[in-house]
Amino acid sequence: MTARHFTAAVLLLFVAACHKDEEKETRETLRSWRNTIELVQSQRERHNVPAVYAKQVGKHAVDQLSKELQKPHSREIREEAERVIALAGHLREAQT
Amino acid sequence: MKKKDLMNLTLGIITSIGGFLEVGSMATAASAGALFGYQLLWAIVFSTLCLIFLIEMSGRLAAVSKRAVADAVRERFGFVFTIFPRLLEVLVNLLVLAAEIGGVCLALELVTGWPIAAWAIPVGIVLWLVLWFGTLSWIENSTAILGLMTIAFVVAAWKLHPDPHELLKGLIPSRPSEQAAKYWFLAVSIAGSTISPYMFHFYSSGAVEEEWDEESLTSNRMTSIIGMGFGCLMSIGVMIVSARIFLPLNIQVDSYEQLAVVMSPALGRWGFPMFVGSLAVCCFGAAAELALSTGYLVAQTFGWNWSENRKPRDDARFSVTYTIVIVLAMLIMTIGLDPLKLTLFSMALTAVILPAVAMPFLLLVNDEHYVGKHRSGWIGNTVVVIVVLVASVIAIVAIPLEIAGGS
Predict the structure, then answer these.
(1) Do A18 and B406 touch (CB under 8 A)?
(2) ipTM entry
(3) What is the pTM of this model?
């Protein structure tokens, strides 16, 4: 095996390792934020976390997911993102 | 053992426990727990084993040779050989210091709602005032004793009833079924956050400041083993809590905001304040140690005067060094970098530079000229060489993959 072949093999491996499924990753991000929001909401209802914290989680989620919405995604993902953003919006408006 | 020695030993152990957990170990253990459950437990345990040996070696070197690590390396290998690894270390320390200041700011943001960037300068100023006016033992002991609140993670882990069989399985390295790049990136980040070179520079410089001698070797060994061992338990506690709360809900830790709720299901109303308190105190303690450690490192490399116990005017260049480092770290945090990403990358970078830092030091603790008859045994040497080299090689491969978004 020549040095050129070896370099090409390493590059191919690198590219293969870097391959990512954008759709799958976005779905996981959405699910992660949805569950975070629900967890924080349930802890807020038990008065285990302060409102100021719940608001920050809501704001952060809205910021992150709004960035996701700017990328080209399928209609299904966009609708789910909008639903999670709406949930995050409620958390952001949490009463002190 | 005399009563005073016992007191010093107890304080040393408390310092090690309280000083173990910081923003890096919290972030890496929590991210790993959320994504892979207990699968990366081995990374915490092996790294701690390596750290125990390195901390014991640095204390032994200081007690016998009366030299701190950086000082002895410069004397033995010369300035030219020393300067490049030290430069790398200072750069990594700067990033880690910024991440620690970011951790304190984040704790303040969580309770006040004011953004991290707004807190960076006040936190930096308070840190500088503490170093400028405080003494080494005061800084060490106060932050470490407050840092004991991190035991809350162990209590929360206990209350969540982790499966012992699964925990034992986590002690054996295994291949992940998916997200291999993330898995290895987190493994080296755990290694980097645990085997932080600043810790053994700080420890050996502290030993020189406190005038340890050969009689201190037993307490040095016990402090390293018991202190670091219990500290490791705290990290394991973070991983367990994250694995029990976040993994079943498929919550990835993408930001510290998500992490702050992790103890609430187990500790109820105490969970949030304990998390915020632990984050603030541990990060502040680590930031103080990092700034001092960088001052020690630079001063010892250039052969300047250095001591935290003297007045700043008596070792002006040492004091100016930590002042500059604090200002730069403060500025990094004011530009609005994501503190979690900064933490994870600086921890992985720490793993990359480990061989350049640990290997010369390893030669010294096997050199009779420095440690006399107290040379290191083959077990310690082997563990350190293997863990340091493996962590560094994995980091070199994993960092580009992580940057490229590998899965």
Answers:
(1) yes
(2) 0.83
(3) 0.87
